[in-house]
Give the backbone structure.
Amino acid sequence: MLYLNFAGLSPERFESKEQASTVQRQFEAMLFSEPGVRWYSDQLDRCRRVIHEFLSIDKNDSPSHVMFVSNSTTAFQIILSNIELTSGDVVLSSDQEHPGIIRSIARLGTKGVQLQVVGGESEDDFCQNLEDAIFKYNPRLLIVSHVAYTDGRVFPLTRICALAKKKNVIVAIDGAQAIGHIPINMHGIDTDFYFFSGHKWCCGPMGTGVLLVTEKYLTRKPSMRVELLRESNSVQKYFDLGTQHVGNIAGLARACELRKTELPTATICLYKLQEKLLTLVKSLGRVHIRRWKGAHAPGICTLQLEGDRVNPSLLTDYLIQHYGIAIKPFNYPEDPGLIRISYSESTSESDIQTVVDRLADALSTLNRS
């Protein structure tokens, strides 16, 4: 199979599997005996330090601010439960957020929490629309992706966080499509929360992820700050989910550790593949490249099919059945005809040529039927 849905799920790397297996075997020899409890805690602390370094987190946000979760949606639900939104509160999001995030907010509608969505065809448009929405709705929370899962656009987080700061809006950033994909330096991101899943661009285990709770958010909670000064691990009491699979967490840490060294070279490779794909796609009839006027991450290319004769699911089913090519369809009534191709540095230029050739064949066949 020619797999081109790395933005959905990446194969777990061998080193991650090996580390997860080794650590889990060690833990099973002790379990929650007194030495086992200490060993378990030490392993989590070690993994927190690895993630802290991986993200280039500001020194004010210590490794203890790193929480381990099962995925990005779970991280966001933890955030929502701690903010405790009430009737009349407004949450702002971009119009490119993952359905899991939007569903989590929509469930709060029964409590009177409102969701307002902001769009824009360029960085400037989005920031202007966001500023207008912030002053109009006086929101309690803003949730925005670092990199959009839909088309790979990179949101200008420095500008976005500065706008939110004007009205003291809590900011949560979904980094699921950014971490392990593009270089990250948390020093320039003035956010309250940042979270990501381990099974995408980091190539870590499924069922792993990270939630960073920043010092900025903790200063909003005076009672929490008092406890933090008294107990070094009290952040975990508010945000951790309890006993977790220590082997998988160790596997995630190992994957992130390796990805940090690979990322500069990987990014260059991904941009070359993207350039080739964008050039080849221009030869396809009735297809355009979905892009905004602004930065784009290198490993995602989203295409819009013109007309209504071929829907995305029909096309992607045809590609997998006839050619063994896996890409991602989107089926949104408000934004029809989208397919996403996402690749890694293990993808070759000949793979890119193949997917475009087979896409042309599939569109030709399906448009005749």
